[in-house]
Design a protein that fits this description.
single chain, alpha/beta, six-stranded parallel β-sheet, two-stranded antiparallel sheet, 15 helices, 8 strands, 8% strand, binds thiamine diphosphate
Length: 404
């Protein structure tokens, strides 16, 4: 797929009007289609079938007139903390890619460009809420209390990286696409069962919405009114497959309607919009009204992983067109307009995070290496012959590599 996805704003599709309204349906037996899921003022105003997107800052970081109404009440310190958390994610991501290029860690995905969606959504929640991550939420992981050291340990092949110190209700990352969605629904169900007041937030990509687990997880959560916020990071690509080739659905947020939950498209590069939307979803879920699907409209500015070459499937023009929508630039411009930030603060923060990363990498390199037997041995009580064969082959490969 080449060229940018024109995005949801051009949508005029609505199942209650136009030629698609009754396609394949017998109106006499089905009656009018229920098209609006009422979830409160913001969800009604941003009914995904109207093709609208919640946005508070424009692309130059100025407050939009239409967005002011939804501006979240954040103190100057909270605004700066949010921006600093995005900078931390950006620097840690850049460092991790550079360690990978130096051969010090394995292949890893990058969160470049998606920092606002990850950080804003986590900082809008409470510490007791649960985060069930995919693999592209480094900003959210760090904002939730996870550590850079664990991130690097995971991508060095150590499972110790999955358990963050203090266990901040942050699940290990899920590489199998959308397996985490069913985990989130399950945690949500346990909260309902216990009568708890926490919420669960889970993240997946646009490609993830084509998976069975997406459908099972959303259906379960909606039927049992589980307090789950489903965040679809629509970064326009599932590796090389463009969003338009992924689904026939006009938008991803409208998939919520079929399950019976509110859905909303949010400008995922607008930190303030992300906070506002997540707060609204959390309020809805905590009130016992069930789950919400948020489509964070964003762009994966980097490669899919360090093994990917995006120049093969997307154009330079497209990449350039998203550069000025960078969530950090927009939030920085907003903070500058409020005189809350400056270059000296930025330089100090970047240096401090860079140092933190180098220290974390050194600690990971000093850790005991995971034995090969652990990787193959954990899956079955007795290793089946095929795994025994694969382990022997891998050991042979490592011996060959050592001898080079
Ligand atoms: C169940 C499963 N099938 C296939 C893969 C291989 N795979 C890794 S990433 C990816 C694309 C995911 O795209 P998307 O859900 O849009 O998330 P993004 O990586 O863009 O954040 C695929 C197919 C996998 N990890 N898990």
């Amino acid at each position: 797929m080449h060229g940018p996805d024109p995005g949801p704003l051009r949508s005029s599709f609505h199942p209650s009007v136009g030629p698609s309204a009754s396609r394949g349906l017998d109106r006499q037996t089905t009656g009018p289609l229920p098209v609006v899921i009422s979830g409160g003022p913001v969800f009604d105003a941003f009914d995904p079938l109207k093709g609208k997107m919640l946005r508070i800052l424009d692309e130059q970081g100025r407050l939009l007139k239409a967005g002011q109404k939804y501006l979240p009440d954040l103190s100057p310190a909270e605004l700066c903390d949010g921006y600093a958390a995005m900078v931390r994610a950006r620097v840690a991501d850049e460092r991790a890619v550079s360690y990978q290029r130096q051969g010090r860690i394995y292949t890893l995905p990058t969160n470049l460009g998606q920092e606002a969606a990850a950080v804003g959504s986590i900082l809008a929640l409470r510490p007791e809420d649960w985060m069930v991550q995919s693999y592209r939420e480094l900003g959210g992981v760090l904002a939730k209390g996870g550590t850079v050291k664990n991130h690097l340990a995971y991508f060095s092949g150590s499972e110790t990286g999955s358990v963050h110190p203090g266990r901040p209700r942050l699940l290990p990352l899920s590489v199998p696409i959308t397996s985490q969605v069913t985990h989130a629904a399950g945690i949500g169900h346990s909260i309902v069962y216990r009568g708890g007041s926490e919420v669960v937030i889970t993240f997946f990509g646009d490609g993830g919405t084509s998976q069975g687990d997406f459908n099972e997880g959303l259906n379960w959560a909606a039927v049992f009114k589980c307090p789950v916020i489903f965040v679809c990071n629509n970064n326009q690509y599932a590796i090389s497959l463009g969003r338009k080739s992924q689904t026939g659905s006009e938008t991803l947020a409208q998939k919520a309607i079929a399950f019976g939950m509110p859905g909303m498209i949010v400008d995922g590069n607008d930190y303030l919009a992300v906070v506002a939307a997540t707060r609204a979803a959390a309020e809805h879920a905590r009130a016992g009204r069930g789950p919400v699907l948020l489509e964070m409209y964003t762009y994966r500015m980097g490669a899919h992983t360090t093994s990917d070459d995006p120049s093969i499937y997307r154009s330079k023009e497209e990449e350039e067109s998203w550069k000025h929508k960078d969530p950090l630039l927009r939030m920085r411009a907003y903070l500058d307009s409020l005189k809350l930030w400056d270059d000296a603060k930025e330089a100090e923060l970047r240096e401090q995070v860079g140092h933190e990363c180098d220290q974390a990498m050194a600690e990971v390199e000093a850790m005991e290496r995971t034995p090969i037997e652990d990787i193959f041995g954990y899956q079955y009580e007795t290793m089946p012959p095929e795994l025994v064969r694969q382990m022997a082959e891998y050991k042979q490969f490592l011996a060959w590599k050592e001898a080079r």
